[in-house]
Structure formats: structure tokens, C-alpha cells
Amino acid sequence: KLQFLYFIGKTRMRVLLWSLLVLGVQGWPSEAPFWPKYPTRKLQVLDGQWEFGFAENVDIASVDPSMALTPNTTTVPSVFDNAMPGIPGRRGTAFYRTTINAFASGSRGMISFAACGFYCKVWVDGVLLGDHRSGGYSMFWFDLPQGTPGTPKELFVLSDNRFNVSTATVYTGGDFWHFAGISRSVVVHEIPSTPTSLMRVDVTPTDLSGTIKMKFVATRFSAVSSKPCFTLDWGGKVDSVCVAFNGTEGTTTVDMPCKPTGTCKLWSFDSPYLHMLNITIGADTISTRFGIRIISTKTVQVNDPPVTEVTRITINGEVVKLKGYNRHTMYPDTGLAVTLDEHKQDMQLIKEIGANMVRGAHYPQDQRWLDLCDENGIGMWVECLGPGVSASDIQSKDFMGQQLKQAREMVEASFNNPSVLMWGFFNEGPTTDQTSCVDGYKVMADSIRARDPSRLVTWADDHTSSSLCLPYADVVSFNNYPAWYGSGGPETCAPYWDGKAKWVAQNFDKPFMISETGAGGIYEWPNNASTVKWGQGYQSAVVSADVTFALNSDLVSSLTLWQFMDIKANVQDTIKCGQCDYLPGVTPPTCGYITDACNRPGGENHKGAVDFWRRKKQVFSVVQKLYTSHTDEI
To answer: Cα(208)–Cα(369) distance, rounded to whole angstroms?
Structure first.
């Protein structure tokens, strides 16, 4: 049934007037909620109330913004398909409408979407700016049409969450609920009238004495007489330099040593110092933060027969043990559109448990979360959306094109976050297929390294020692769940992981990481015997065995447990398992009856250290004790 409604004639005119009078006059926030900052631009952060409509079975190719119905209001950022675990969210097409306040004469505009998915299409004043198909988690930009000075602009956005190879190209699966909508901030940039304006600046530390390489990318590039000027705050010592363009298409690089030489503070887990950089060209300025830290690898001697040496990850030249969790961006009340306070609550728990590393599963991360990681000394693995990729996906030119585009967007958005230590892609993909290794894994790894050679590249491989793609990784990362999906109990964990660690050490000069492992534990089952699966006792026993081995083995560089919190399951398991029987009137929601007859009881993945509502399970204190008592000695 086609459920697409239209306004026509005078009715539509009244709606437009209401939009301008009500939505357009509200004062949009004027500072982006994440870095970088733009002190010379007038920003409109379109976080607030928008007009909203929803329909099923829409032919999105034929949608006309002037005819689409948006009779309701919604908050942006938000998702339009949120529902309790075990309950499917609605599926179809959402319509968003608001107004952009008038620009000054002569200025031009750009608009950025920090995240909009699955598929998004954007119009301003009825003019199609473009669409976005490379995943609902990466930031994308459009130039705004010039328009009439002093006149507000109408912004119309279509968001569709139907699984479709044409519009949801990179949505290949995953054991989690894919939320949809305008889930992160929309920012309008009014850019001063100038022959050249700035798009971004990338900062790469090149040595521990503080020398950095700065690369800036300009739009509307021209050989202007005004040279780009950099101002850096070296911890109280301000340094400035102006340079000539030496690149093409508005790109240039500058090397700048710390002054006084060798005195610059480094970024580390224990002391996450952040430096400030301003770059100005003409009337346009970008301010960004960065940290001086070098992530690398080195060979160390060990005594773990038959292994005598192993490659380990280093930060600032020191061997480190990365220990932490996989974390989805997901909350019961907000879905993917997690608030800053909710991010801060998770950060507090991550630090409390003693972690120094988080794998951002399974998509590009919210820049606000990465800013918090920068400030709190938490390392990040950030990856593209693409769990469950198949060999046929990789052979699709459209799929690979969108994946490469997503990787570019991911790297460009988070380049200056020192917390980002690794880039990843293709969680649990077809790594036993040699053609996929060359046409997919190598192509993705090479593309990322070409944009950012300063970080490590990896992926989570569930084929472990059968994988054929590992030569193209900087870090060998394995997913497996001994004592959960396999036979045997917690006593099987250490022998299993020891065998994998030794295999990697004997076959590759690369660090070894346990990227996923763990066990399920239902919050409402705290007192079950430890031998019973889904009880918190059994979860604690399995996870304790995994963590104890990983921390004590010199062959393991990193462990990220699956997972930080319980999450809503994917569509298939949500429908198959349904929700538990919640106790009436109890907050947070608590199951009075839940069955483990389904692999996702109550429509959730229960492998978290905390439940979906962030209530701690027994395993939280178990891991906390192990993580906080561990030192990085080798």
C-alpha cells in the first residue's frame, strides 16, 4: 500500500509559512559540538525541532520535497525506528524539514551531516544537493546553493532504512540493530567571502621531539596573495608561521618542529595532552586539537617456547598492552543518537573498569565520543560499517566504491584525534577467499594507508589461522568465543588463545590482538551456578579465563572483550526471539521471565559487562580487578 501523502496549493503554502515562522526563527546553536572549531564562520547547528513525516512503500526516486507531508515534529539528532529490545522498529522513509537562517550578502555556505542513514537525500529550496549511500555513520558535506541574500532557505532531508542493495549498499549484516534517521548533528557553515576557504587540516606527528607535518585542504582554491598562516600552542609557547602554497588544488604541507625543541608534551594514556592549532587563510580560520604520539610496532625478546621473539604494539616507543572492550553506540532511549551525557556515562564506566582501549563496533564513531577519548587517554580502533561482507559483495564495483568512500570519510573526519590508533574494516569477512583478499582487503588497506600512514590497519578475522588475507594487515586480530560457542568450559580459553598467539608469532612479524571474545550473562540471572550458560557466574568464569591469559601472555598485544554493554539484536533475532516479560512498573525495565531457548534472549546480545541500561553485572568487578592490577611490563 502506498502511504505517501501530499500537500497541494494553499495548504502547502501555509505549511511553508509555518515552517519559516516557527522553526526558522528559533536560535540554532552557533558552535559545533565537536572538534574542529571554526571561529570566523557563522555556524548554525541544526540541533532541535524539525518538521517530520513518515511513510512506507515510497518510491524514493520520485519524491518531490514540495509535495511531501511533514505534519509532525521530531528532535534532531534522533532515530525514527527506536523500540524496546525484542520489538522491531518501523521500516520505511522519513521526511525532515526545517529552515536555514539567512546568509549575509556575498558569503557562501556548506552543510555537514555527522551521520544520516541508511540512505539519505538532501534538498535546499527544492534543489537536490545529492545523496549519501556509504553508510549512516560517516560524516558527509554538500555545498549550499547561493540563493537570495537575506532569505532563509528550506532544508528537506529524506532518510530511508529499508535494506536494499542499491540504497543501503554497505549494510551487509551484523549482530546488532541498525538505527536510522538524522542521528548526529547537522551543521551549516556560512563562510566569509574570500577567494580561498579551508576544508580541513590534517596534523601528523613525525617524531617524539614534537615535529609535526600539517596538511591543509582548501576549497575554491586560488593562488591568493594572502598566505596560509599557522599558529600553534606548544603548551604555553605560541609559534606562528606563514607559508606559500606548494601543492595543487588547494593542498599544501608544512613541517614545524616543537619550540623549544624536545620540550613538547606527548599524548599518552596516563597523560593525554592536547595541543592547539589554528590555521588562517584570508578571512577563514580552522581551530583543531591534536596530540603528539607515535604508534608503531617493534620486536621484543620473550621466553614462551617455542617462541623467542614477538612483535608488539608501541606508543611513543614503549611497549603497551591494550586492554578494553568493544562498544556499540547505542542507548535504550536514544538508539544511535546517543547524547553527550550518555557518552560521558559510558566513558566513566570504561575508565572505572580499567580499560585503555575501545574498539568502535562496527562503524565510524561519533566525533564527540572520540573527543572524549582524546581527553581521557583512551585508545580507539575505528572501522567502516561492513560486518558480514561476502565475496560477492567485494566483487561488486558499487559496493567497493561505497566502502572506499566511507573509509575516506571516516579517516578525514577523525584524522586529528590522537585516540585513534587503528583503522579497520570488514568485520568477519570472506578471508578464506584469495580473490577477496586482493580485491577487497588489500585495496581497502592500501587506500587507508595512502591517506594516513601514521596509524595501524587491521580487521577482526573470525577465520583465524585459516585466513589468507593476513599479509595485508598491520595487526593480526582474531574473533572467537571458546567456552561459549565451542565445546568445553572456561578451562579451554587459555589453551585456545595460546595456540593462536603462538601461530601468529611463528608466521608473522605482526602484533597479535584478540579483537572479540567473551560470554553471555543475563542481568536477571545473577545467582545461577557457574556451570550454567547465560548465568552471570558462567560469564564471569569464561571472561576471567580470557582476560587472565591475554594480560599474562607476552604474545598478546591487545584484548578487546565482547562487549561493553548489552545491545539490541539485529532484525532477524529481534523478530525470532521477541522480548522478555518485563515486570510492570519497574524502572529501568527488568525481566520477570526470560528464556534462553533463543540465541538472543529477550532480543538482546547479553555479552556486556553492563546491561543495556548500564547496570553492572558480576563480570564488571571481575574484569575491573584484572585490568586495574595489570602493568605493562614485558
So the answer is: 26
Distance CA 98, CA 108 (A): 19
CA separation (Å) from 40 to 250, 281, 337?
19, 11, 28
Distance in angstroms (rounded) separating the CA atoms of residues 476 and 460? 8
Burial 256-295, CB ≥16 within 10 A → b, else e: bbbeeeeebbbbbbeebbbbbbbbbbbebbbbbbbbbbbb
* Cα 91 from Cα 160, distance rounded (Å): 8
Task: Identify the H or E element spanning 503.
Answer: helix 493-507
Q: What is the pLDDT of residue 200?
A: 87
What CA–CA distance (Å, rounded) separates 153 from 188? 11
CA-nearest of 269, 373, 374 to 321 is 269
Tally helices (H) and strands (E) across the chain. 11, 33
For the chain, what is the radius of gyration of the CA atoms? 25
CA–chain centroid gap for 161, Å, is: 19
As a whole number of angstroms, the distance between CA 545 and CA 618 comes to: 15
Cite the DSSP H helix spans in 353-415.
367-376, 391-394, 397-414
Query: What pTM was estimated for this model as a whole?
Result: 0.93
Residue 363 amino acid letter = Y
Q: What is the rounded CA–CA span in Å between residue 419 and residue 397?
A: 32
| Cβ 119 vs Cβ 60: under 8 Å | yes
Distances (CA, A) of 390 to 166, 387, 440: 16, 9, 10
Angle at 536 between CA 531 and CA 541, to 5 degrees: 55
Cα–Cα nearest to 41, from 104, 113, 123, 129: 104
Cis peptide bond prior to 426, omega within 30° of 0: no
Beta strand 512-516 pairing with 476-479: parallel
Place of cell 586529528: 416
Instruction: Give the cell for residue 118.
Output: 541508511
Give the length of the chain. Answer: 634
C-alpha cell at 630: 595489570
Reading the block at residue 4, the C-alpha cell is: 505517501
Residues 239-265 pLDDT 10s = 777 776 555 445 667 777 776 666 688
9 band by pLDDT with thresholds 50, 70 and 90: very low
CA dihedral 121, 125, 127, 130 (to 10 degrees): -30
pLDDT (tens digit per residue) in 423-432? 999 999 999 9
Query: What sign results for the dihedral spanned by CA atoms 81, 66, 19, 136?
Result: positive
* Under 8 Å between Cβ of 175 and 427: no
Residue 530 banded pLDDT, cuts 50, 70, 90:
confident
How is the chain split among helix, strand and coil, in percent rounded to 5? 25, 30, 45
Measured CA distances, 203 to 1, 36, 250, 505, 514 (Å): 52, 12, 16, 33, 30
Cell numbers at 72, concatenated:
509532525
Task: Using alpha carbons, select from 564, 511, 580, 462 the residue that is nearest to residue 84.
Answer: 580
